[in-house]
Amino acid sequence: MAQIDAFFKMMHDLGASDLHLSSGSQPVIRLHGDMQRVKYKSLDSDDLKKLLFEITPAMKAKEFEETGDVDFSYEVPGLARYRVNFFQQRRGVGAVFREIPQKILTIDDLGLPPILKNLAALPKGLVLVTGPTGSGKSTTLAAMIDFANKNRKDHILTIEDPIEFVHEPSSCLINQREVGRDTKSFKAALRGALREDPDIILVGEMRDLETIELALEAAETGHLVFGTLHTISASKTIDRIIEVFPGQLQGQIRSGLADSLRGIVAQNLFKRIDKAGRIAALEILIATPAVRNLIRENKVFQINSVIETGRKYGMQSVDDAIMKLLTADIIDSEEAYNKAVNKSKFREFLAEPPQDFTEV
Hints:
Shape: globular
Strand order of the largest sheet: 9-8-10-11-7-12-13
Number of helices: 13
CATH superfamily of the largest domain: P-loop containing nucleotide triphosphate hydrolases
Order of helices and strands: HEEEHHEEEHEHEEHEHEHHEEHHHH
Distance between the termini: 56 Å
Number of domains: 2
Number of strands: 13
Strand content: 15-25%
Structural class: alpha/beta
Oligomer: single chain
């Protein structure tokens, strides 16, 4: 048992999502969204490095020494898996560990809208799950892949950096590839994927032009492709994909995206007040003919209006999702106001509405 495993057991027992270890500081955990110091001595750089390198594969240790950054996964048998990032900082080494539960929660367990099951059952197309870092994208995607795994008879191929949730084959064959260990890059794995007879492809992060281009190609050629982006809304997700490409290609990409897109789920996490934990508020865009036309005609700014009027298709705006949680007394009014898009809808719920200097 590695010495650092004691920290993982502590965070697991407390229900913390992240563990932060930083040279010159006490350990810190993120518990239900808040950072809390652990009653432990400050760690100096040499001691912390020794603690970290005890669990680091030799190849990853070499990469960290050469570049100052590295990502990998680590598992404590019988406890949980962890997504690991090491980085060099002013005082020495730092590390962040995100706990990945061994049990994959279902769409129903998470209280997510049933339309996500429909998206996971699609024969082909592009489905994107977006949101800021730490917003629960991986958990939502894992639930959707789990639904497909249990209800389809297909080949699911995931490309991740690193592998987070481990899926055991059920009705589907599942192959999970880790960037850096099983393949050189997302784009190299995606190129190979088109020759590996997948029905469903999960791209852990669509981070560059070539990866996005290959994901679109896969979606256009009969595959169901799931991907993630660090964007905060459906409309901004579409803009981000198109703006990655040079101006002369944007018309072509806009047309391809309009044809292949099936849905976008943009989410954020909120601290619960009814019980311990956090809950996601989701904006959902379904690519109806009206949405496709707006993408083709470069009128993405009108998509929010389509979401507002598209409830019968399973669409919902993030503000509507937040309002449901607020009126059900699941989240508090201050956090609802802070994370809402149209803050005026939520001012009446605040005892002392603040003046937002950015809106003066």
